[in-house]
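ENTRY TYPE: paired fold submission
RECORD: A
CONTENT: sequence, then structure tokens
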Amino acid sequence: MMESVVLCPSCGSTDTRSLGTIPCSDTFVGDNRRAFHANTRLFECHLCGLAFRHPQESAAEILDAYSSADDHSWRHSIEERPDWKLARSLVKLHASESTSVLDVGCYRGDFLACLDLPGRVYGVEPNRLAAERARSVGVDVIASDIGQLERKDILFDWITAFDVLEHLSSPRAFVEMSAGLLKPGGRLVIATGYRSHWTFRLMEPRYYYCTLAEHVSFINQKWIGRVASEFDLKVELTRQYSHYRASWGERLTQCLKNGVYSLSPEMGALARRCGFGGKDVRSNPGLLMHPPQWMPARDHIMVVFRRGGDADHGE
């Protein structure tokens, strides 16, 4: 029996292939109550380079989960975020009194607040409590979804999206919408998981980052280049980084755990049966094959795209 064709949700290509089954997870947008998608697979699109979860939670389900999540769930300071630090330095380098910044998924407004800009800062945020907190620190939250912003109704010098693309079934559509909301010479900053990193390539569907059910899209270098050329954007900068600062001991420990798991997932299952790994495998045997975390890995990337046209006012 022939396997049905799976379309790439981003570019629509039929030239896709399965990379294997994603292990069962007990986490969805911070909710640890039940397992999700025990039979989900990771697919790769040969045309655009995107890897994607199939089947996946719908956009409405993911958005609803974030909208109702505790507003303290993803609270960060700039000292914890190397991507924020770099983005802030770039924005300030080109800033003027009229500089405008839109942060998509601004949450409590922590990144925008740290910019301390003389211009206007705007946010898109689905979580009502977080949006209220962002407004209290001076962020003009103008939508709960970027799709609500009409093209050319308002244009921005900068659009940022930290840890957003992995939750979108079509990150290409997001880049297209964002490009339409940039002023000529404006910049789009994205930060997300990076499938081209060697730790990701080693593990593929068994990588810890894939097991989070709300993570549905995974970009690589090919995808970055393709969307840049498609929407008349220049890739101005790329920078790989880790979300987690760890000691050398922690790095070595997690590297060894993942090395053993990649060679023999059954060894990982045996360790979980013996009570290691922090998963309740007695209540949910599907978690036996859940991979160890690899938090210190530099498996994230920040990309700065620049729209064609006249230079921005800060230059």
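RECORD: B
CONTENT: sequence, then structure tokens
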Amino acid sequence: MDKVVRIGGASGFWGDSSIGAPQLVAHGQLDYLVFDYLAELTMSILAAARAKKPELGYATDFVDVTMKSIVRDVARKGIRVISNAGGVNPQACAQALAAVAAEQGVQLKIAVVSGDDVLPLLPELREQGVRELQNGRPMPERLLTANAYLGALPIRAALEAGAQVVITGRCVDSAVTLGALMHAFEWRADDFDRLAQGSLAGHIIECGCQATGGLHTDWEAVPDWAHIGYPVLECQADGSFVVTKPRDTGGLVNTAVIAEQMLYEIGDPRRYLLPDVTCDFTQVQLEQLGEHRVRVTGARACRRGPATRSRPPTWMVSAAPRSSPSWGSTPRARHSAPARRSWRARASCSRSAAGCPTPAPTSRCWDRSSPTTGRMRARRTCAKPCCRWP
């Protein structure tokens, strides 16, 4: 019988309902429980909180409400938890979680993924002429936060090191799921079609119950909103997966709901840019297998996602003791992973038309001077500041 990995998506944003995690832990029969808390505005809010109190800067609800209520069950059932609740202070988030676990007599191996903070690189970026994407203005003199989007590779590395809980800073929303799948099925970093399918799986559940009817156009067809079920993925090694939800919960899982979520916030479905892979969703097939069960196949890779220059992400695993947590002697290991900036910077490719891979005059460069995001212009030369995806 083919191995099936079950992943539950318990949160779509900071402030999401607290019912998702307990519901999924109790009734989801999970191998992994994943959370997405972050948006750009959220990062700014967390940075402001850290500026007032250095021990803050993470999604406190994840520790004080959610994990506090499920940590015993998670440990007892062997469910592994992956969350970007670390925000701009993942170390503080891990320390707070270790303290909560110790109070309940639970010993956890907690991993921290860092390396997304690029504030130390701002002088270099200013020298390179990085400007605001939308209007071309110089970067402000003072920034609350500047972060790269990390991918799934450091999450996989942390799981391979034995982490029961992985806490990250800013990573792409789908990476918390893709990292679990790469670990569970031993997918290689260049197995791009499977990475595209795994990224689509993560994208489907990254917004919580949007995948179970919470944002459905035909909202009146969605039953029992008050007890809506949170999404569960049943994933196989070939990358295919089934979207469902716990039994006897509200909500709706059908092909229309999943199709709407697939297209949510991705821009061009032929070229969805992620750190680990660039995805083509145009050939995706959705099949209704039964009530609240949709099979998803057909995501493909275009090429490796664009990488940026930043410090390699660092993961750290610590076994939290039953008494006071200790972090001073934790062993460290480094793992490099591609990342894409939360803002796209202009960079000079300094190539003439003759040196451009595509002959002039059809050389296509991403025009960062245009105020319109995502506009492509044919250019006769690559010698001016632009940013071409590889």
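NOTES ON RECORD B: Residues 5-341 form one domain. The chain has a mean pLDDT of 81.
STATUS: closed
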